[in-house]
Design goal:
The chain is mostly helical and 189 residues long. It has helices spanning 2-6, 34-40, 43-55, 58-66, 75-82, 90-103, 108-117, 136-144, 161-164, 166-188; strands spanning 20-23, 123-128, 149-154. It is built from ten helices and three strands, in the order H-E-H-H-H-H-H-H-E-H-E-H-H. It is globular and about 55 Å long. Pfam families: Abhydrolase_1.
Length: 189
């Protein structure tokens, strides 16, 4: 969406998009389960779903599912994930984010317009090979939708390569950015 907006007439900052990196994305996967989407639109859901569930061990279950190697998800890391839960208004913000994500599940028409907006731009799709939230198959399907794309699957990695395998993520992104910069330099000469 950001690349699409940058290419429209509303591009006040004269930004040129040279490439797009997509990390564990899907144009069709629903992030919020349908039962939760229904409850998120009610005050009952806000008070009796979001707050109690996130204060329980469900956050640990969700976080463990996002990691390939859950042993790397130490007590210290889990504590850091839970830290925002003690900030005043955290549940209100999370409730609104959940509602927003459930409201913005892309229709086929919107998804197609987003794909068209970046059809001539190099796209790097990065996925955790063992991602249980957005499967490698889904990432492969995503990469196949672009004319000029490359898929990198990071092995021994779940949904959070930036946390679980940051060096492998950097190794995937760096050559892509280097090629874009080199091509940009050659065009400006």
């Amino acid at each position: 969406m950001a690349a699409q907006r940058a290419q429209t007439s509303m591009n006040y900052f004269n930004v040129t998009v040279k490439g797009v990196v997509l990390l564990n994305v899907s144009l069709s996967k629903e992030v919020v389960p349908s039962f939760a989407r229904i409850l998120l639109h009610t005050s009952l859901g806000k008070k009796h779903l979001v707050r109690p569930l996130l204060r329980t061990e469900i956050t640990q279950v969700v976080n463990r599912r996002a990691w390939y190697n859950a042993t790397k998800l130490t007590t210290e890391v889990l504590t850091l994930y839970k830290a925002p839960l003690s900030v005043e208004g955290w549940d209100e913000a999370l409730h609104e984010i959940g509602k927003l994500s459930s409201e913005t599940i892309l229709s086929a028409k919107i998804a197609e317009s987003l794909l068209q907006a970046v059809e001539n731009i190099p796209v790097l799709v990065i996925a955790g090979a063992e991602d249980l939230l957005v499967s490698l198959k889904t990432s492969q399907a995503m990469a196949s939708k672009f004319k000029n794309s490359r898929l990198v699957a990071i092995s021994e990695c779940g949904h959070l390569p930036h946390e679980e395998r940051p060096k492998a993520l950097l190794a995937a992104i760096s050559p892509f950015i280097s090629r874009l910069l080199l091509a940009s330099d050659l065009q400006s000469q």
